[in-house]
Write a structure and sequence with these properties.
Layout (H helix, E strand, L loop, with lengths): L1 E5 L6 H9 L3 E5 L11 E4 L4 H10 L3 H9 L4 E4 L1 H6 E4 L10 E6 L9 E8 L2 E9 L3 E5 L4 E6 L2 E7 L2 E4 L10 H10 L1
Parallel strand pairs: 1-2, 1-3, 3-4, 4-12, 5-6
Antiparallel strand pairs: 6-9, 7-8, 10-11, 11-12
This protein binds glutamine.
């Protein structure tokens, strides 16, 4: 199994290390040509969604990647990646792939509480560590979107068809269950 990691900006390297650790192959998506190689799943890392969206368009990777996602490519998105997938962003006019029927709020925790750590249940798993960095949360979900986790009442993890999307950064903690969940959904 080969997992492609979008490697334009942000925290992509940590995901690659984990994918290898869990026994799958990994490749980086840095340019349009990389999209022609075969892969079984995609990771959209955290970082800055505006920058990532801009680079995807400038490098002509946006449309082919959007088509792959809409055609069912399994995708795991963290933080900025979740913003890239969201159909609506309540505090930004610019949307991106729009494949996930949710409304997200960027930088939803405000400046003071930009980053924090907590432990919560996640889709049937208990005590999953969650590190949030200038994170979005999901304000509302569309039909058939499964809610996997909430923190203080706000939705921070969802699953919809081929898409698993979360607000936090599991690659920064040592618990591998969320990555494993993604890989198992492909296997
Ligand atoms: N604040 C970033 C954004 O709006 C997301 C932060 C992150 O990925 N850790 O794109």
């Amino acid at each position: 199994m080969k997992i492609a990691v979008l490697a334009l900006q942000g925290a992509f390297y940590e995901h690659e290390t984990i994918i290898h650790e869990l026994g799958a192959d990994c490749m980086e998506l840095r340019k349009k040509e990389d999209l022609q190689k075969p892969f079984d799943g995609l990771i959209l890392p955290g970082g800055e969604s505006t920058t990532q969206g801009k680079l995807l368009r400038e490098l002509d990777m946006f449309a082919p990647l959007q088509e792959k996602i809409k055609n069912g490519l399994p995708v795991f998105a963290t933080c900025a990646g979740l913003i890239l997938l969201a159909e609506n962003i309540c505090n930004d006019d610019r949307t991106h792939f729009r494949s996930l029927p949710v409304t997200v709020k960027r930088n939803a925790y405000g400046r003071q509480l930009g980053s924090f750590h907590t432990v919560q249940n996640f889709g049937g798993m208990s005590a999953v560590p969650m590190t949030f960095i200038r994170a979005p949360y999901i304000e509302s979900v569309g039909k058939d979107v499964e809610i996997l986790a909430r923190v203080d009442g706000n939705i921070v993890g969802v699953r919809y068809q081929n898409q698993l999307a979360i607000s936090f950064h599991p690659e920064l903690d040592s618990d591998r269950r969320v990555h494993r969940m993604f890989l198992e959904s492909i296997r």
